[in-house]
Design a protein that fits this description.
This protein has about 425 residues and is an alpha/beta fold. Among the domains are: about 1-60 and about 100-135 and about 200-270 and about 355-415, FAD/NAD(P)-binding domain; about 140-190, no CATH class. It has helices at about 15-25, 65-70, 85-95, 100-130, 145-150, 155-160, 170-175, 200-215, 255-260, 325-335, 380-395; strands spanning about 1-10, 30-35, 50, 75-80, 135, 140-145, 165-170, 185-190, 195, 215-220, 225-230, 230-235, 240-250, 270-280, 290, 295-300, 305-310, 310-315, 340, 350-355, 360-365, 370-375. Strands 6, 7, 8, 14, 15, 16, 17, 19 and 20 form a nine-stranded mixed β-sheet that branches. Strands 1, 2, 10, 11, 12, 13, 21 and 22 form an eight-stranded mixed β-sheet that branches. The protein has a three-stranded antiparallel β-sheet with strand order 3-9-5. A hairpin with a 2-residue loop joins strand 16 and strand 17. The longest helix has 29 residues, at about 100-130. The protein starts with a strand and ends in a 19-residue tail after the last helix.
């Protein structure tokens, strides 16, 4: 039987980063997942390290926008009708958190994490020999309608208050950055302080390789077997049981499968999302990820091709894929972007773990001293993986945290 200081459950970008940070601090660590590192939700993102993020995605407010979603005509969202009664209370909480006051509160509470996101990635990439995947070219959001662009005025003003560099661009300014785009928009915003990666899976694997080089162990096992044994945590793996002093739950959308039977029932839901890769048309390509802000999707240049990611789908995590958003957005995406031949026959699907306040849970499990929770990163798992790893490692090792972890505590849902 193996004995470790800590076992990290979940080998996505968050779990891999946590395991690496703990190993860097001299702990013996086992990283356990039922699949390969980085092959779950972490695989399918747009690859953006969003250092510029201030305000979370809001619930739609206009009657027209709500009706487009309700009638299944929206590109930015889809839903399964049978799932709506289950998720309705969460959606109401999400809508309440979409007030400008709460979104600005979010901006202030989350700024320490977003501000340190890129530096923490760069530190780990240097150590892991993964800097070839980093692209420090920012990202571009384009707006088809003047009103949509003007609605970003509050966000841009807040960005200026926080000192986040950005350029508000006319069409020509945006086309100067990305000349392969078609002039199907009126304005753009170039967020300079963000970065992106060309292969999110390879980055996660590089962090895991660095973790093992420091003595960490990667094991295949089912996190749901976690239980107490002789005063320690025990998880069953294909290589036998592992006992540990501390356990860290970094299971993303699967965290509830383990935690609910332990009477830790936090209000997590998932937003499903899809992606497809396309070969560039001719010699055209993109230098950085570009968001079509009005239609709610992103096209990002990856090693596999141009990755087209959809908006959110509200459905049961394990329900069969229904990638109908591609039918709605592909004609307009092809008109704007140099998308050539489709690479895969079928879209990839993943689930983003989301709390209604858009903040992750980072800290001790309620009523536990040696069980730690790190999940619910919503759209920002890739962005916040390394900085989450640093924060939780500081907490576990009784070091002084680089920021106040109280806003991310699970107890915020029970106060």
């Amino acid at each position: 039987m193996a004995r470790t200081d800590a076992v990290v459950l979940g080998a996505g970008i968050v779990g891999a980063s946590i395991a690496l940070h703990l190993a860097r601090r001299g702990l013996s660590v086992a990283l356990v997942d039922k699949g390969g590192p980085g092959e779950g939700t972490s695989y399918g993102n747009a690859g953006v390290i969003e250092a510029n993020t201030l305000l979370p995605h809001p619930f739609p407010t206009s009657f027209g926008a709500i009706m487009k979603v309700a009638l299944k005509r929206a590109t930015e969202a889809n839903y399964h009708l049978a799932f709506l009664p289950h998720i309705a209370p969460w959606l109401l909480d999400y809508r309440a958190n979409s007030s400008i006051e709460r979104r600005i509160r979010y901006a202030n509470l989350m700024r320490p994490l977003f501000a340190n996101a890129l530096p923490e990635h760069e530190t780990l990439m240097q150590e892991a020999g993964a800097t070839q995947y980093l692209r420090k070219e920012g990202w571009l959001k384009v707006y088809r309608n003047k009103a949509t662009f003007e609605a970003t005025a509050r966000e841009r003003a807040l960005a200026s208050e926080f000192g986040l560099p950005h350029d508000a661009l006319d069409r020509d300014g945006a086309l100067a950055l990305e000349p392969a785009l078609a002039p199907q928009f009126v304005n753009g915003i170039y967020w300079k302080s963000s970065a992106s990666v060309t292969n999110p899976l390879a980055v996660t694997r590089a962090y895991v390789a660095r973790f093992t080089a420091l003595g960490g162990v990667v094991l295949t096992g089912d996190a749901r077997t976690l239980h107490r044994a002789n005063g320690r945590w025990r998880v069953e793996t294909d290589e036998g049981p592992v006992d540990s002093r501390e356990a860290v739950v970094a299971l993303g959308p699967w965290a509830t499968d383990l935690l609910k039977p332990m009477d830790i029932d936090l209000p997590l839901e998932v937003k499903r999302g899809y992606h497809l890769h396309f070969r560039p048309r001719g010699n055209a390509g993109l230098t950085r990820p570009v968001v079509d802000a009005d239609l709610g999707y992103c096209v990002a240049p990856m090693e596999q091709g141009l990755r087209l990611t959809t908006g959110a789908e509200f459905a049961d995590r394990d329900a069969p894929p229904t990638p109908v958003q591609f039918d709605r957005l592909l004609p307009q995406a092809r008109a704007l972007f140099p998308l050539g031949e489709q690479v895969e026959a079928q879209p990839w699907m993943g689930s983003r773990p989301c709390f209604a306040d858009s903040m992750p849970v980072i800290g001790r499990a309620p009523g536990k001293t040696d069980l730690w929770l790190c999940y619910g990163h919503a759209h920002w798992g890739l962005t916040l993986g390394p900085v989450t790893g640093r924060l939780i490692a500081e907490m576990i090792t009784n070091a002084t945290p680089f920021c106040d972890p109280a806003p991310y505590a699970a107890e915020r849902f029970t106060r």
